[in-house]
């Protein structure tokens, strides 16, 4: 409805003549009514129209006139600055040495502050740590060379970050990574803090692989690579160089020997005391069969463990690297669940995360968790994953029939059976799948889809465990298809076969 129609009062529905309309007070209509419009019905008064510029409610004019005027803004008056005392020439000459002394002290303090800032930026890294080739972040090895290559291209676990290893089923492949991580720390001279085990856990760590075993495995890999022929056109190409896990960039002076960044471990042997340079701080938990003391907030061993890690960080030099390990986290065989609640468990992880961010050049964390006991869609497990920087999941394969290579090999194959069993593809050697759900720094920045840093998030990875090389993660690939009739084609034809072939 238009503005004109809203303010029109029809005479047929209005009050009787001589009476004022209840909707419109008297005195608001124009003194001179407008002339009748052409075509209007005689005897009927024209429609009253409110003139423009008039207010349509009583007392509005008085209210407008009585509105208070806004006060003008008054600028604040600035007080004049106090002038210092005027010194004479004799007083200035007497205070000049004191001014020079104070200026020298201030310059020295500023120089010390600048030096401390530069030293904090270029802080020397301890043994077993080095700058990443990607962006210079300090990193350390997980003890498994293939896992180091999966962590967003940094070449290792970045200091101040954590790694969560999840595993399905009743197997214990995650313990291979946990023990290699602890053994690498002890060999490098780090402080290793383990929750839920005793001091005897040191005797379960794998030993450093000798040069003979590593050379044998390297020769076997080279022989396997030479025998793997995809197409004839690739035979002329040079073999792809393999990564050397026993050497790393120099961490000392040019004259010092090159330090080893990632060691190879032999699972069939145990770590010798002579190779241990670090300290193992074991923190055993109470017997899970006995009830835990109450109240939990005062007697929780998780709080004591967190306090011990914090005290160790404060009491050691700034260049010392610490490793925190939570093996088989929340397993009923290690953790007393009587009286424990998951909020206290999350409080432990949040406390460790705050220590990781505070000591971002000295501390790393690795956790292993069974997803069979605690599934990933659990609310608390999701919160635990949000607090971790790297997440890997191991999915072991169920026991099945033997490989097709050994199955197709007959008893008359002889030496071909042994050679085919030695040269196996990743599909034949795999013991399970490896899924990467989250990567350090890369996932925090959103993770660009086509970036090479997130290649491990998109690839199909499989893992295998061997006694000489430990756990190996590699891309999944099918073996090349071999022609079954190749032996028949290569066999020389006899005279009888030739004669039979000539007859039609």
UniProtKB/TrEMBL annotation:
Residues 486-504 have a biased composition (Basic and acidic residues). Residues 1-56, 399-428, 474-504 are annotated as: Disordered. Keywords: Cytoplasm, Membrane, Nucleus, Transmembrane, Transmembrane helix, tRNA processing. Pathway: tRNA modification; 5-methoxycarbonylmethyl-2-thiouridine-tRNA biosynthesis. Pfam families: PAXNEB. Belongs to the ELP4 family. This is Elongator complex protein 4. It comes from Sporothrix bragantina. The lineage of its organism: Eukaryota, Fungi, Dikarya, Ascomycota, Pezizomycotina.
């Amino acid at each position: 409805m238009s503005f004109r129609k809203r303010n029109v009062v029809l005479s047929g529905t209005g009050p009787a003549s001589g009476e004022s309309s209840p909707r419109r007070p008297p005195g608001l209509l124009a003194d001179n009514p407008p002339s009748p419009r052409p075509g209007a019905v005689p005897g009927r008064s024209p429609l009253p129209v409110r003139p423009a510029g008039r207010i349509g409610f009583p007392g509005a004019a008085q209210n407008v006139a009585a509105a208070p005027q806004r006060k003008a803004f008054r600028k604040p008056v600035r007080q004049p600055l106090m002038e210092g005392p005027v010194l004479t020439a004799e007083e200035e000459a007497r205070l000049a040495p004191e001014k020079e002394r104070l200026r020298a002290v201030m310059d020295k303090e500023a120089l010390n502050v600048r030096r401390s800032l530069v030293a904090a930026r270029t802080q020397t890294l301890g043994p077993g740590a080095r700058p990443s080739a990607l962006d210079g972040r300090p990193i350390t090895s997980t003890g498994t060379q293939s896992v180091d290559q999966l962590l967003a291209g940094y070449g290792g676990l970045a200091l101040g970050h954590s790694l969560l290893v999840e595993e399905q089923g009743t197997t214990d492949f995650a313990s291979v990574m946990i023990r290699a991580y602890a053994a690498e720390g002890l060999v490098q001279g780090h402080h290793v803090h383990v929750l839920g085990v005793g001091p005897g856990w040191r005797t379960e760590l794998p030993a450093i692989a000798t040069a003979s075993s590593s050379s044998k495995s390297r020769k076997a890999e080279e022989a396997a690579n030479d025998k793997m022929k995809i197409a004839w056109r690739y035979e002329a190409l040079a073999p792809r160089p393999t990564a050397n896990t026993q050497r790393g960039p120099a961490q000392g002076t040019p004259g010092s020997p090159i330090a080893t960044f990632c060691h190879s471990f032999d699972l069939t042997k145990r770590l010798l005391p002579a190779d241990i340079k670090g300290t193992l701080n074991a923190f055993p938990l109470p017997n899970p069969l006995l009830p835990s003391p109450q109240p939990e907030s005062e007697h929780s061993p998780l709080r004591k463990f967190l306090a011990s890690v914090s005290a160790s960080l404060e009491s050691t030099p700034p260049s010392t690297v610490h490793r925190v390990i939570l093996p088989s986290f929340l397993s009923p065989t290690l953790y007393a669940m009587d009286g424990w609640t998951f909020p206290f468990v999350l409080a432990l992880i949040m406390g460790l995360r705050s220590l990781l961010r505070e000591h971002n050049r000295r501390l790393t964390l690795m956790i292993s968790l069974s997803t069979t006991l605690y599934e990933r869609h659990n609310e608390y497990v999701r919160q635990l994953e949000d607090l971790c920087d790297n997440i890997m999941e191991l999915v072991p394969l169920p026991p099945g029939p033997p490989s097709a290579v050994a199955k197709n090999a007959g008893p008359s194959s002889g030496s071909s059976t042994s050679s085919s069993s030695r040269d196996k593809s990743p599909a034949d050697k795999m013991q399970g799948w490896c899924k990467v759900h989250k990567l350090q720094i890369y996932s925090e920045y959103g993770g660009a889809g086509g970036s090479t840093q997130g290649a491990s998030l998109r690839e199909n990875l499989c893992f295998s465990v061997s006694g000489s090389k430990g756990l190996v993660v590699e891309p999944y690939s099918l073996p090349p298809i071999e022609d079954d009739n190749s032996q028949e084609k290569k066999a020389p034809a006899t005279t009888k076969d030739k004669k039979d072939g000539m007859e039609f």
